[in-house]
Backbone:
């Protein structure tokens, strides 16, 4: 069972989390949904395309102009409230590492806090627990928020990701976050070079075997671009290949830009793996 | 007294062929109601594949599960012992018989088998004989033609015997949603 804020998911089907950026400078959409109405139109679109979760972010993950908590709250909080009002049953996630931001957005109706920076703010787990929200526990290899890896290496990157994310999960559990509301994420490209991200993809089944539900965030990332020699706008095929590998291994949540394509790949792979019946099969069975 | 129900041998009714959206939802509902009406441990008249479908329906209706039958059209053994709940029970002196069979799979261009203009008239005549019921017509069914038309009528001869002196209770389903003629019918005699 997975409990994402107000939503309890009793089946074991995979979930698609759509990225909704309220940022002027994110790497893929480059500010296309920075304006509130544009971001809301994006929510409408991804819900129509089959997203189970929207992940709203107000700060670009990479380097860029400083965005303090006040500005992040200004970008995200009221927007979360607007989405909650329009879509009462939609699971709303907010991509933030700051506990003060998490507190405000949970009051506005957010169900999930996606801490892409691996527990940098030690108070975040307490805020998530206080709101009975869900938490995404990521691995960043110890990087500070909004920094890139430089000559970072691991004896075993998957072991490091498992150790860090499960320790974070246990810390969240101890703080009072419900066990069924904790998800782990190896965090492709965060504190990882392309070889690391490829290995994490290849061995993501080891993370699934921990028993914690696994989220993967693969969408259009640099490890896809470097592997195929493709710029940001031409990485869909590579992203979907990585998605299929993770789906076959049993990763549960997929954080993506392209919802419809991901939905099809994940559902198809899940069905090939024998975990999801076909939508509607009658050929040869009538 | 005997209660007899006819259901079609549709593989989509089997749990191993379950879809997220049931393509035979209304047919399944009619089948389950008819099987429940038979009461526990119905005797099954079907071929091997039909017996699997009968077992699945009996299990899904909350009744005893009959064992898979052997090869060919024959009457499988009745299962004794445990009696599960049924929406409607019959007197212990009554016998319940579940027959598996259906009409042609060559009715239209969209049918599983290539279209044959003889299919719809064949089904119409068979349907009328089942409704009657008219055991004499059922007994004289042209099995060669049935085979050519991809109709699953191997159980009809035994059904004819069961329907001697019986009356139609209801036609619960009469449709061909995928180009195959399905009936769910109940008789009592």
Residues:
């Amino acid at each position: 069972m997975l409990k994402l804020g107000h939503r309890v998911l009793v089946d074991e089907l995979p979930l698609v989390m759509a990225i909704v950026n309220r940022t002027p400078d994110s790497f893929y959409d480059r500010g296309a949904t920075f304006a509130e109405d544009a971001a809301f139109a994006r929510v409408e679109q991804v819900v129509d395309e089959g997203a189970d979760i929207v992940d709203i972010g107000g700060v670009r993950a990479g380097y860029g102009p400083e965005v303090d908590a006040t500005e992040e709250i200004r970008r995200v909080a009221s927007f979360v409230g607007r989405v909650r009002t329009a879509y009462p049953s939609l699971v709303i996630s907010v991509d933030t590492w700051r506990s003060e931001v998490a507190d405000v957005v949970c009051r506005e109706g957010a169900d999930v806090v996606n801490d892409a920076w691996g527990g940098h703010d030690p108070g975040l787990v307490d805020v998530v627990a206080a709101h009975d929200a869900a938490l995404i526990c990521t691995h960043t290899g110890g990087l500070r928020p909004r920094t890139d890896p430089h000559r970072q290496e691991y004896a075993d990157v998957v072991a490091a990701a498992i150790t860090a994310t499960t320790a974070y999960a246990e810390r969240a559990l101890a703080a009072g976050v419900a066990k069924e509301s904790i998800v782990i994420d190896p965090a492709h490209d965060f504190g990882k070079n392309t070889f690391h991200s490829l290995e994490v993809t290849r061995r993501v089944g080891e993370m699934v075997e921990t028993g914690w539900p696994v989220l993967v965030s693969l969408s259009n990332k640099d490890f896809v671009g470097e592997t195929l020699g493709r710029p940001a706008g031409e990485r869909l095929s590579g992203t979907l290949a990585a998605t299929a590998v993770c789906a076959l291994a049993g990763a549960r949540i997929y954080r993506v830009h392209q919802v419809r394509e991901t939905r099809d790949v994940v559902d198809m792979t899940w069905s090939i793996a024998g975990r999801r019946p076909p939508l509607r099969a009658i050929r040869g069975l009538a | 007294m005997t209660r007899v129900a006819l259901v079609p041998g549709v593989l989509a009714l089997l749990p191993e062929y379950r879809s997220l959206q049931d393509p035979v939802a209304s047919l399944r509902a009619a089948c389950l109601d008819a099987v429940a009406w038979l009461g526990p441990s119905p005797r099954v008249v079907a071929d091997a594949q039909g017996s699997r479908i009968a077992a699945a329906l009996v299990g899904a209706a909350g009744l005893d599960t009959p064992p898979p039958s052997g090869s060919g059209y024959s009457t499988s053994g009745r299962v004794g012992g445990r009696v599960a709940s049924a929406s409607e029970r019959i007197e212990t002196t009554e016998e319940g018989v579940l027959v598996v069979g259906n009409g042609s799979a060559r009715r239209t261009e969209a049918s599983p088998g290539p279209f044959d203009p003889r299919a719809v008239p064949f089904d119409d005549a068979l349907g009328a004989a089942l409704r009657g019921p008219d055991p004499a017509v059922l007994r004289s069914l042209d099995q060669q033609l049935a085979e050519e038309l991809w109709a699953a009528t191997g159980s009809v001869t035994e059904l004819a015997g069961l329907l001697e002196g019986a009356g139609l209770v209801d036609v619960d389903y009469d449709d061909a949603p995928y180009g195959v003629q399905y009936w769910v019918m109940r008789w009592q005699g």
Summary: The interface with chain B takes residues 276-282, 284-286 of chain A (CB under 8 Å). Chain A has ten helices and ten strands. The radius of gyration of chain A is 18 Å. The CA atoms of residues 224 and 237 of chain A lie 9 Å apart.
